[in-house]
Amino acid sequence: MGAIEGWSFFPAMTKIVGTLGPKSRSVEIISRCLEAGMSVARFDFSWGETEFHQETLNNLKVAIKSTKKLCAVMLDTVGPELQVFNKTEHPISLKADSLVVLTPDQNKEATSNLLPINFGGLSKAVKTGDAIFIGQYLFTGSETTSVWLEVTEVSGDDVVCLIKNSATLSGQLYTLHVSQIRIDLPTLTDKDKEARNYLSKLGDLNQTQIFAKIENVEGLTHFDEILQEADGIILSRGNLGIDLPPEKVFLFQKAAVYKCNMVGKPAVVTRVVDSMTDNLRPTRAEATDVANAVLDGSDAILLGAETLRGLYPVETISIVGKICAEAEKVSNQDLHFKKAVKYVGEPMTHLESIASSAVRAAITVKASVIICFTSSGRAARLIAKYRPTMPVISIVVPRLKTNQLRWTFTGAFEARQCLIVRGLFPTLADPRHPAESTGGTNESILKVALDHGKATGVIKPHDHIVVCQRVGNASVVKIIQLED
Question: Among 21, 64, 130, 251, whose Cα sits 20 to 30 Å from the Cα of 460?
């Protein structure tokens, strides 16, 4: 690997997470998604076999090599999903004002008046008048592909419901959601726990970050304690929109993103351009929504069905990136900075102080980039927390470590984990260069970084650059001005 790779262009500071699936798993399409600005690939384990996902992952690795664009991997676990099974896979049409029975007997076939579900306790959890939503990707709000039911009676284990809108459910699996009701299923399934144990045994993978997906009222009520434990937050607005009245969703989004911003943990917003699953252009409302998510302070936008099974995965990534870039031009950095400083309070820790100083310096001298040397990625993430208006290039310096049998370099992992943070563009330094030299300079790596910046047009003659690095035990922020 050359000294620096992976930051040839900055389409937007906000990151885009794309879900890879049937319509986006060939090497060719993944490569185009990376070129269009996808920096995290999400694998959704609520459907598909492990082998299927493994093939997709292998294709992703090939695409990363050929495009020379770094990409992180996000695995989305199954979680406590209530599901309706349709073994025959024939579309099921449901007519408004007629009745349908939800039964835990999974041997029965799904029809227009009977839907088998994977949970025996539904009849004990619901009461007459409760709202239930069913759809392939939960309730999209698109009245033809998902259905809204109202519980009219509970008989034994079965739940009888009135259908509120005519819809056709297609495919073999639909998600079921009961509004405002706590369903007694474990949040982490045995499968998820196996995955965690497996990860913790795999050397480097025990550093895997865990993001919490907030998708119901329970997640809202416990938000503060969840944020403390999680490495980041995903606001699953499709599901939240069912548990919350529509007029409250924006408010919760703003509050949650603000809290994430203040503690410097990535906030990811979902369900932004649903209509692009079948259309080349987003609606005006959706475009506005993406921009507002950016102005609220989101680190990343997560695309689900739009890239997984949508007709235009590449175009979707590209358009979302353009909207994000426009919104970033008008975001109130000054206000964000003041809030972050106030939240941290005094006395500041050594690292917070250096990070905020680096951002303040960069904005004052109108630097074109901030270059940060880091080995864990923590320093770079702190700089990004103060939301500088210019890209932060985090040069991850590999660390040599040994288990007494062999020496290994760590760094690639830390570099990729920065890919979900707004404004952070990680790159791996060449391990042959000394990282924390006592002489007080990282001249060799810095020179390579600057040369690469010039070559790609990110850095121009006479530009100011802010560099943040450790020298011995001290941290240093310096401002460099380039000659011609």
Answer: 64
Both tokens of residue 410? 């760590």
pLDDT digits (tens, 9 = 90+) for 35-44: 999 999 999 9
Looking at the DSSP bridge assignments, the partners of residue 232 are 211
Q: Which of 332, 286, 278, 334 is nearest to 306 (CA)?
A: 278
Q: What is the DSSP letter of 435?
A: S
pLDDT in tens, 189-203: 777 777 777 777 766
In angstroms, the CA 256 to CA 220 distance is 9
Separation between Cα atoms, residue 320 and residue 233, nearest integer Å: 20
Residue 171, number of CB atoms within 10 A of its CB: 15
pLDDT of residue 371: 93
Q: What distance lies between CA 475 and its chain's CA centroid?
A: 31
Query: pLDDT tens, 9-56?
Result: 557 999 999 999 999 999 999 999 999 999 999 999 888 888 999 999
Burial of 132 (0-12, 13-18, 19+ CB in 10 A): buried
pLDDT at 399 over 80: no
CA dihedral of residues 478, 379, 340, 362 (deg, nearest 10): 20
In 86-172, the DSSP E strands lie at 92-94, 99-103, 114-116, 131-135, 146-155, 158-163, 167-169
Q: Kindly give, in sequence order, each residue whose CB lies less than 8 Å from that of residue 467, ignoring residues fewer than 6 positions away.
A: 370, 371, 372, 373, 446, 476, 477, 478, 479, 480
Residue type, 103: T
- Residue 224 predicted with pLDDT over 90: yes
- Phi, psi for residue 179 in degrees, rounded to 5: -65, 135
How far is it, in rounded angstroms, from Cα 452 to Cα 7? 9
Give the DSSP per-residue string, 399-423: EEEE-SS-EEEE-HHHHHHGGGSTT
Strand partners, 176: 82, 134
